[in-house]
Amino acid sequence: MKKFLFFLSIVSYTSTYAQDPIIIKQDSSVRDLDEEQDVRDLPFRQRIRIGGGIGGLQFGNPTVISVSPMVGYQATNDFTVGLALDYQYYKSTYNPNALNFYGPRAFGQYRLQFLEGILSKAFAQGEIQKYFLASGSQSASYDPQFLAGLGVGFGGFQITALYNFSYKANSGNQLYGSPIVIRVGGFFF
After folding, report:
1. pTM for this predicted structure
2. What is the CATH number of the domain that holds 72?
3. Cβ-based neighbours of 127, under 8 Å, separated by 6 or more
């Protein structure tokens, strides 16, 4: 009987304390964690986004390597503006000199909240870019290009499909072989 009473007292003691709610106090919490923080409340430094992209990777004939570091400023929760510097190396057996394409581009991205039920991080993007060519002793300048399109993000990774409104078929002053431009990259910091 003593064993039964001892067992009963332990069970009643642990079950009494098991029913007490656990309260976690967070003194530093200033907002609901389900609510998106307004970036306009953040200092300038925390609104800067750094990233980049790579593309056109091809080895052999021709060899193509493209890199594009970029920096952005998150003006609002939905709108980011930024600058990028594009560089592309192109080498083939048909041309003894390697071609180096480079130039700046300015862009803006606007988050499309109405598509969040289908695509959680969909955005519209518009940009303007200017390219230059350096190859041995020759150089060239391309006309400014105006592009716009849609993209989707996964964490910091982004895929964007743009249409080049400045594209002219059979133009000697044209960098792209198509009016459709695909960009892969994103903001990682």
Report:
1. 0.74
2. 2.40.160
3. 105, 106, 107, 108, 146, 147, 148, 162
What is residue 89's three-state secondary structure?
Answer: strand
Which residues touch 70 (CB under 8 Å, ≥6 apart)? 50, 51, 52, 53, 82, 83, 84, 85, 107, 185, 187
Q: What are phi and psi of 17, to 5 degrees?
A: -75, -25
Asked if the structure places residue 32 within a domain, the reply is no
Q: How many domains does the chain have?
A: 1
Q: Is residue 125 part of a domain?
A: yes
Q: Is residue 27, in this structure, part of any structural domain at all?
A: no
Strand-pairing partners, residue 103, are 86
Q: Judge whether 121 and 160 are in contact, CB under 8 Å.
A: no
CA distance 186 to 154: 9
In sequence order, what DSSP letters do the residues of 104-159 get, joined into one string?
Answer: EEEEEEEE-GGGTTT-TTEEEEEEEE--EEEETTEEEEPPPEEEEEEEEEETTEEE
- Please tell me the distance from the alpha carbon of residue 108 to that of residue 95, in angstroms, as a whole number: 36
**11, amino acid identity:** V
Question: What is the Cα–Cα distance from 88 to 176, expressed in whole angstroms?
Answer: 12
Question: What is the domain range of residue 89?
Answer: 37-187
Q: Which of the four pLDDT bands, split at 50, 70 and 90, describes residue 138? A: confident
pLDDT at site 49: 94
